[in-house]
Each structure stands twice: as structure tokens, then as C-alpha cells.
Design a protein that fits this description.
Elements (H helix, E strand, L loop, with lengths): L1 H19 L4 E10 L10 E5 L4 E5 L5 E7 L1 E8 L6 E7 L3 E2 L2 E3 L18 H4 L5 E4 L1 H4 L11 H5 L5 E3 L7 E3 L7 E5 L2 E2 L4 E2 L4 E2 L6 E7 L13 E7 L8 E6 L3 E11 L3 E10 L1 H6 L4 H4 L2 E16 L2 E16 L3 E17 L4 E18 L6 E19 L3 E20 L9 E2 L3 E15 L4 E15 L2 E6 L5 E7 L4 E19 L2 E12 L1 E4 L10 E4 L7 E14 L4 E18 L15 E17 L4 E15 L9 E2 L6 E10 L4 E10 L3 E2 L4 E5 L2 E5 L6 E2 L3 E11 L7 E9 L9 E6 L7 E6 L5 E9 L1
Parallel strand pairs: 1-7, 1-8, 12-17
Antiparallel strand pairs: 1-4, 2-3, 2-5, 5-6, 9-16, 10-11, 12-13, 14-15, 16-17, 18-19, 18-51, 19-20, 20-21, 21-22, 22-23, 23-24, 24-25, 25-26, 26-27, 26-28, 28-29, 29-32, 30-31, 32-33, 33-36, 34-35, 36-37, 37-38, 38-39, 39-40, 39-41, 41-42, 42-47, 43-46, 44-45, 47-48, 48-51, 49-50
Amino acid sequence: MKQTNFLFLFFLAFLFIPELFAQQKYTLSGTVRDASTGETLIGATVKLQNADHSFGKAANDYGFYSLSGEGGEYTMTVSYAGYLTYRKQISLIGDLKINVGLDPANSLQEVVISAKDRRNDNVKSAQMGLEKLNMRDLDNVPVLFGEKDVLKTIQLMPGVKSGGEGNTGFFVRGGAADQNLILLDEATVYNSSHLLGFFSTFNSDAIKDVSLYKGGMPAQFGGRLSSVLDVKMQDGNSKEFGVEGGIGLIASRIKVEGPIIKDKASFMVSARRTYIDLLLKASSDSSINSNTLNFYDINAKVNYRFDDKNTLFLSGYFGQDNIGIKDLFANDWGNTTATVRLNHVFSSKLFSNTSFIFNKYHYAIELLDKDNNARVTSLIRDFNLKEDLQYFTNQHIFRFGAQATHHRIAPSDITTTGNSSINPLSVENRYGLELAGYVSDEWKLNDKLELLYGLRISSFSLLGPGTIRTYDAAGDIVDSYDAKRGSFVKTYVYAEPRFSVSYSLSEQNSIKASYNRNTQNIHILTNANTSSPTDQYVMSSNNIKPEISDQVAMGYFRNAKDNTYEFSAEVYYKWLQNQIDYKNGAELIANAEVESELLYGKGRAYGLELYAKKTKGKLTGWISYTLAKTERQFDALNGGNYFPARQDRTHDLSLVGIYNFSSRWTFSANYVYSTGNAVTYPAGKYSTGGLTTYYYTERNANRMPYTSRLDLSATLKAKETKKYQSSWSFGLYNALNRKNPYAITFRDNKQDPTRTEAVQTSLFGVIPSVTYNFKF
């Protein structure tokens, strides 16, 4: 114990003693905002330089910055992509606060950010596996139905695999679809798709910033194994009122924002709806006009700035899908989130963010047949309290905080009428408490070496009330008892170390390495290749252990020609423990003893990611390529041998090009190619009572055909006025009309029943789209 205390004190002395003996330092702090709207600018680079010193830092997620230096005269530089650079001569002879408003560049201004102004974060930062989405690029990347889509654009990045044709589900570095933590203003979004995956839940008009962490995950994030998709909503224009939106062939959207109190409080409300159901009602066929097919969603945010030290944010999201076939079935599902957040600046060096978060996902399926009517409902609901703090010193950014989340899962409730042949059923609710604390340090040792390291301690407890059953390997009950309300049934505690390092070979190239461990306690049970509205959620329990992932990665990063070109190559290897699969023939939905149907094993994933991007000039875009392998191993499957996971794909290639032909015309294209997913085809068949039954041997031993698609788009900007802007977007999805596989089924050949034939289902041929966008 004495030795541990000595090492801890030595570590603190190693960090702080050099600063105690250094020359007197003063702190420059403040907030960086868009001068025209008042929106905070996440990651804006603030730099101080003179003849002797040059140092800088990026603004945090709320636009706050803090950097310390020796007293003297400096040139202060603040830069952000798409904005004019701010420069100011300052005298740092005491602590100084400067709030900066950056002016957006208009289409006639060329914004030049020199290498001296820019931190080269993609090269210099110790953070690995981070993909930042440029919201301006999103306007021009062609996607299905012409709708700007965060998730479909993310799928064009290296290491990210699409869930399928037209689907917003995605897999990151070999992880399953449920192993991605998707956050909207810090609230968890459990199902991120509309219309079975053709649209994502994120209305891009309301989004300010998107960051995807694939590896080297910072310690403040936890709860999922593979990635964190951190999406932040716009705050709302605090200067003037504005309206923008778009009218498309099947969906329209609108956003309204403006000041409540100018420069002090603002709001933003964004809404979107499809109107396919309205088109169906125009049909004279009663079997068509009575069907339902729509979704709508609403994003809203209000903020109030009490003073320079305190700002309150209220944000929320509500989305709902409705699909129904007359006299057959109805299906609806949706997400609800609410976030209350208080930013507080304790001092020029200490920043705090306190959040209370609510999120809920629910679905309902209703069978409308009078003899087999039934309604199945399910939900997952969280209450989350978080405290995050950042402390800035000359060479360090310390982050530390804590989080507590209360989970409730209502797996399945089946209600029926008296005439139904289906029996009603209610599966017990399950409750859980997830706690976590973390500390991390971003440490710039010198101009060449930067570290990002931390530790997250997480715990999960299954809570009563409920009937707690213990199953053996065969799925038989070996113990059962009733737990009291609030009792702790089973608790798991894990340490999750995180470490990343960057070593700069020069100003323009570096090598990086990282290691991180993650655990996961909310799991999805599904037979599908990606998430669906009716997925079954379960918690870690006395039977289900937390999933664990350990990942190591290394990479080479290089910029060229004043950061016009960016290149990276990363390799990774991931070990997965306590992976969950199901027994052959398992019933996963509305099963009170679903844990008896589960199998537990391990997995591994490894790959190479290549990425090249052009950031400036008339032609911009990127090329990404992933070579990867993802496998699972379960004693009861495939003879205990490793087999490909469903999401295993050997090759993934994406090419994106955006060409600014003139001040009015912009053309873009993207091409994707990927190896087919691993699937299980029947190994044989037999006939019983005139019915054909297929039997299967090795799990996922076969492959779907490859996917290849070219998408094209063009945007025409109308002549702008001081008060009105508009544009037309034209698109061709799957311009080469390739019939990509969505599903493959098997059937007996009609002429020769002894022969079996495969039938491929494809969703889309060529799909044109036209959208009118406006802003005033």
C-alpha cells in the first residue's frame, strides 16, 4: 500500500513540479462563436505565437478554449474551416478573457488557412480512429431519395460497413450493429432508422457536428464495444430569425430558428415528414388507399446564456414511424430523447458540463386479422445523470467525471381480444443500474510527442424485482427465485484503460498507436444482418456476462501541399469476449425464457484501412478502402471452430468526388463496392408430408453476391439576395441500375422439385430524385 501511495505521489510530482518552477504563466480563455449566428464552433483552433513561442489548443465541444503561456506580446490567431481567420495582437500580462466571433466566408472569398494557423489535428493529435463529418460536404454527397443523411455518409468512411442496400445500420471494425453507441446531444438513440432503414433519424438541417470514434475511444465514452457516433444539434441563431427547408418527391423538411433574447437566448425547431401515405390515399383502389407508410420527426433546442460563465441548454428529439397494411398488420416505432445541460466556467482553466438525460425507444406490432388479432409492445427507457469536467494547463487537458444510468426494459407484452387464437403474454420488466467514473489526460510533451491516456471504471447491476432464473449450458433451469424491488441481483465491475500516442516525424506526417478496452451491458438479440424495429433488448444478468472488447491499432498519417491532401493508413486487431449468439431454431421474440436460448463465445476482428482526401480546390472528395476479417467462435456451433460473422466482408471501397463547376453548379458522385455478407445456405433438403424442409450445416459458410453502386447528383444554386437563398438538387441513385442483392431465398424448381433454385430479391433500380431547398 505504501509503495502504491509513493508511486501515485511521484506521478503527480512528475506532472506538476516542472510547471511550479517555470516562469510565471498567464491564461487566455474564452468562447469561439459564429459571428453571424452565435453558434459555438466546436474544435476551432486558437493559437498564440511570437518570436520565441508558438502554441495552441482546440476549442472544446462547447466552443470554450483555454491556453496558458509566459507573459509577453503575442499574435492571437483563431481559425476554423469555412471561416475567415481572426488575428489580434494581445499583451498577456495577466489572465485574459477574449470571446471571438468568426465571420463565415462567402462564396466569393477564398479562405486560406496556412500550416502555421492550423494544428494539423489529423496528424498531430494523439486521438486515433476519429472521423469528423464536414456538414458542408453532406449537402453534396448523393444518397437515396436525395435526402441528406448523416448515417449513409458515415458508411463511406474506412472501417465502417453498410448494413445493406438502403440501410442506415452500420458495422465498425468487425463489431455488430448494436455495438455502436449513437448519441444525439448526449442522449442514446437505440434505433437510428426510419422506414426500415431507408432514412436515418438525424435531420441534417438540425445537426451542427458529427464525430465517429472507431478506436482509441476517449475515457468519457463507454457502454458499447465498437464505436461512438457523437451527434450534436445546432443551438439556434441568437442574432436573427431564419427559416430553411426542402421539398422533395417523398419527404419535406423545415427548420425555424432565432433569438428569444438577442445574443442571450435562442431556439431552434426542425421538423420532417414523408407523405407516401398521402400519395397512397389518392389511389382509387381500397386495398392501397387504406395502407399506412410514413414517418415524422422533430428536433428542438433552447438555450439561455445567464452570463459568460453559465449557459443552460434544453434539447429534445421525437420521431415516429408508422407502417400498416389494411386488415393485415400495423407496425409503429419511435425514439424520444430529452437533454437538460448546464455549462459552467469555474475559472479560466476549469470547465464543467452537467447533464440530465432521458431517452426511450418503443415499438408496437398489431395483427389485424379477426381470428389472430394481437398487439405486441416493447420498450427500453433510460434516465441518465452525468458530470464532466475539463481542466486546462499549459501542456495538459485533464478530463474527469462520473455517470449514472438507470435502465428499464419491457421485453414483450402481448394483448389480444377474446376471439383471438393467440394467447396473451407479459414478459417481466428488467431493471439495471450502470455507474461509471473516468479520468483522462491529453498531454503534449513537446512538438513531436502527444499522449492521450485515461481510465474508466464501470459497473453494472441487475436490479429487482423479477423472477431470476439460472440456466445450464443445455438451457435447463438449475435455480430460480424472486428478487425484491431495488435488490441487487448481480453486479459486474470492470476497469477500462485507454491509451493513444502520436509521434510527429515532421509537421506533415506522424505515426500513432492506441489500445482501449470497452464493456457493454445492453445487448440486442436478432436473426437479421442489421438492427430492425422489432429487435429484442436484454441486459447483462446472472446468465449474460458483459461483452468485452480489447483493441490495438497503429497508423501512419500524412498531410501534403499545405494540408490540401490528407492520407492515413491504419491497422487494427480486436479481441471480443462474451459474444452472444442463439441456438439453431431459437425463438427470440416474446419468450419469457429467452436467456435459455442463448450461446456465449468469443470473436476476433482485424483489418487495414486506407484513406486519402482532398480538402481544397474545385475538386474535393475522398477514397477509402478497408480490407478486413471478422470471426466468431462458439463451442456449440460449427464444431467449435471459428466462422465468419454475419457482417464479415473482405473488401469495402468508397470513392466520393465533389466538383464545384461554378459559383452556381456543383456536381458530385460516389461509387461503392463491397464483398457480399456471410450467410448460411442450406446444405440439403428432405420432404415430409409433401413439404420441403431444408437443413443447414456450417454457420455463415457462404457469401451473398457483391454490391456495386454508382450515385450521381447535381446542385444548382439560384441567384442569392440579401434575404433569400434557394437551390435545386437533382440525383440518380444506383445510376448503373445494378440489381444488388437484398435477400436470397431457396425454393423447389417447379419443373423438377428435386432441384433447388436460389431467388434473389433486389430493392432498387435507378431512383431519380429532385429536391428544392430554401433559406430566408
